[in-house]
């Protein structure tokens, strides 16, 4: 259309120019042209008969002037175009508005689509939250109805059955929460295009839900027994099986025995056992019960210095060996100045197949009027197991737990956490040394290849949404290095933090140095336990008493999480070596 308009204008100018030139070079014809010719063009000859000679001369000059202007315009126009071409950005002049209109149109459609997607995601989020709330209310209602009308002896069993029946519900909760988080993550991505500089986007966990919330331990419904010992009746604890963790569990059971038998518990001497005073606060136990219920062997020796004698030495297990006491241990006891009666057992009890025993059994078989008795080893004893292992233990007291790390170790753990971890971290007990043969003797095995273990750990990290893992392990550097490279969540490697070697520039462990506790392997082990017990989520090693003692502390302190689990819980190792 533009080209046609330009052609039409050019034709008109040529016709005008020809007519004007013709007027200057020829004389008027005596006859008038046809009417249609006069209508089609400006014809000076039409005026010839009606105007005089002077006027004809003036018109001729005017026509010549007009012709000169047209020539000047024809010459000037190309020069003007050339100047404009080299001094102006014609592309920006003629293309900017069109492209801007197109971009604005595309942006509008994009924003409209994003807002529509946000609306649909918001509707999905509301639906998921409604489903979550309804399911949670139903579970609480079921728990309340199941526990209503139950007597105190049935409550603990009821809690355990409910915990077992709600395992699938925990999986359901995890799935729903994962979908809600995914929904929110998509919303956040879409919102990024609509953010202003000061707009903050709510995090993926900003729903008021705690994916790894703390476990309700039902402390108010604990079944307890009072410990009111006679000041002149003593029970010497004999703990010989396993390492420190086994001995601490053994001591906890001895406390129950002492309470049932109304005796003061005597902690073993470091010359025949561990240095308990370096890792435990003995006075803490007495303060929690408001009376003297536990004393050290040194204090016992001072009280009984004129007659250090064990009147009755009772072995809980008769097979395969009485009390786990061998000649070497008997010699150590005698070196303390102790004399003792012959070892005896009130029943036939095999350590490999322990029978379930009750409080009444203990009273019937271990009660005595003797001043000093010794009982050992009770680590494997199955006595009122549900009662003894309940949160807070079986004894009535005013603290969270009785057997816990010393105050110095607790403070050192807190300082380490503040320095390296922060409040949200996963603790991993990764037992490896000597664990391969031990686990492969079990069915199923509990020893996992590093890649499989890393995959299990990554799933827990993703669920707990924590930035760092505290690693408590006896594994070689070759194993921990591989594990570190494989623990990846959202394409990011999750740091595995171990306690570093002592460094004078770091002050988090200064308390241990100040009190001469540095370099003590048992103190360091208890420090590891404490850091693990304070974590947001704990991953333990199945079959390890170190893990079991951490779980006991978490349960008693109220730090246990619904995300706590054994490494690769519910899975078999994807490869198991043959036996020797």
From TrEMBL:
<dbReference type="GO" id="GO:0005783">
    <property type="term" value="C:endoplasmic reticulum"/>
</dbReference>
<keyword id="KW-0812">Transmembrane</keyword>
<dbReference type="GO" id="GO:0046922">
    <property type="term" value="F:peptide-O-fucosyltransferase activity"/>
</dbReference>
<comment type="similarity">
    <text>Belongs to the glycosyltransferase 68 family.</text>
</comment>
<keyword id="KW-0472">Membrane</keyword>
<dbReference type="GO" id="GO:0016020">
    <property type="term" value="C:membrane"/>
</dbReference>
<dbReference type="InterPro" id="IPR019378">
    <property type="entry name" value="GDP-Fuc_O-FucTrfase"/>
</dbReference>
<keyword id="KW-0325">Glycoprotein</keyword>
<dbReference type="Pfam" id="PF10250">
    <property type="entry name" value="O-FucT"/>
</dbReference>
<keyword id="KW-0294">Fucose metabolism</keyword>
<dbReference type="InterPro" id="IPR045130">
    <property type="entry name" value="OFUT2-like"/>
</dbReference>
<feature type="region of interest" description="Disordered">
    <location>
        <begin position="1"/>
        <end position="37"/>
    </location>
</feature>
<feature type="transmembrane region" description="Helical">
    <location>
        <begin position="71"/>
        <end position="88"/>
    </location>
</feature>
<comment type="similarity">
    <text>Belongs to the glycosyltransferase GT106 family.</text>
</comment>
<keyword id="KW-1133">Transmembrane helix</keyword>
<keyword id="KW-0808">Transferase</keyword>
<protein>
    <recommendedName>
        <fullName>GDP-fucose protein O-fucosyltransferase 2</fullName>
    </recommendedName>
</protein>
<keyword id="KW-0256">Endoplasmic reticulum</keyword>
<comment type="pathway">
    <text>Protein modification; protein glycosylation.</text>
</comment>
<keyword id="KW-0119">Carbohydrate metabolism</keyword>
<keyword id="KW-0328">Glycosyltransferase</keyword>
<dbReference type="GO" id="GO:0006004">
    <property type="term" value="P:fucose metabolic process"/>
</dbReference>
């Amino acid at each position: 259309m533009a080209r046609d308009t330009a052609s039409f204008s050019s034709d008109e100018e040529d016709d005008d120019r020809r007519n004007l030139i013709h007027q200057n070079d020829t004389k008027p014809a005596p006859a008038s042209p046809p009417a249609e010719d006069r209508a089609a063009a400006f014809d000076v000859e039409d005026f010839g008969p009606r105007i005089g000679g002077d006027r004809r001369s003036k018109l001729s000059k005017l026509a010549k002037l007009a012709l000169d202007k047209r020539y000047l315009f024809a010459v000037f126009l190309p020069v003007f175009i050339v100047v404009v071409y080299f001094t102006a950005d014609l592309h920006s002049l003629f293309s900017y508005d069109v492209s801007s209109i197109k971009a604005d149109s595309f942006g509008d459609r994009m924003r409209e689509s994003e807002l529509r997607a946000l609306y649909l995601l918001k509707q999905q989020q509301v639906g998921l939250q409604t489903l979550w709330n309804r399911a949670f209310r139903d579970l609480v209602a079921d728990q309340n109805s199941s526990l209503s009308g139950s007597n105190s002896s049935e409550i603990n069993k009821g809690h355990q059955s409910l915990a077992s029946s709600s395992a699938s519900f925990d999986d359901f909760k995890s799935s729903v929460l994962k979908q809600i988080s995914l929904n929110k993550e998509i919303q956040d991505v879409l919102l990024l295009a609509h953010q202003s500089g000061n707009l903050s986007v709510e995090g993926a966990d900003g729903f008021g839900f705690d994916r790894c919330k703390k476990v309700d331990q039902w402390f108010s419904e604990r079944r307890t027994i009072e410990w009111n010992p006679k000041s002149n009746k003593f029970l010497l604890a004999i703990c010989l099986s396993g390492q420190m963790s086994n001995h601490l569990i053994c001591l906890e059971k001895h406390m129950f025995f002492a309470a049932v038998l109304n005796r003061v518990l005597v902690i073993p001497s470091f010359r025949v056992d561990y240095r308990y005073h370096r890792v435990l606060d003995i006075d803490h136990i007495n303060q929690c019960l408001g009376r003297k219920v536990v004393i050290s062997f040194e204090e016992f020796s001072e009280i009984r210095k004129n007659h250090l004698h064990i009147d009755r030495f009772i072995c809980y297990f008769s097979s395969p060996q009485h009390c786990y006491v061998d000649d070497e241990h008997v010699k150590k006891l005698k070196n303390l100045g102790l004399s003792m009666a012959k070892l005896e057992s009130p029943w036939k009890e095999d350590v490999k197949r322990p029978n379930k025993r009750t409080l009444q059994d203990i009273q019937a078989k271990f009660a005595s009027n003797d001043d000093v008795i010794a009982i050992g080893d009770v680590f494997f004893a199955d006595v009122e197991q549900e009662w003894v292992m309940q949160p807070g233990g079986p004894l009535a007291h005013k603290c969270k737990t009785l057997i816990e790390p010393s105050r110095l170790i607790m403070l050192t753990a807190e300082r380490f956490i503040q320095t390296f971890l922060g409040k949200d971290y996963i603790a991993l007990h990764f037992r490896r040394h000597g664990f391969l043969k031990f686990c492969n003797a079990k069915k199923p095995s509990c020893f996992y290849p590093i890649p499989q273990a890393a995959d299990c750990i990554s799933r827990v990290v993703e669920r707990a949404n924590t930035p760092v893992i505290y690693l408590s392990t006896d594994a070689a550097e070759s194993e921990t290095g591989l594990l570190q490279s494989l623990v990846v969540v959202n394409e990011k490697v999750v740091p595995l933090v171990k306690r570093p070697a002592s460094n004078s520039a770091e002050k988090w462990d200064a308390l241990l140095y100040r009190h001469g506790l540095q370099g003590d392997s048992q103190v360091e082990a208890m420090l590891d336990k404490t850091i693990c017990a304070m974590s947001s989520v704990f991953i333990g090693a199945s079959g390890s008493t170190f893990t079991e003692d951490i779980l006991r502390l978490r349960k008693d302190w109220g730090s246990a999480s619904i995300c706590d689990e054994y490494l690769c819980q519910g899975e078999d190792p994807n490869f198991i070596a043959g036996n020797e």
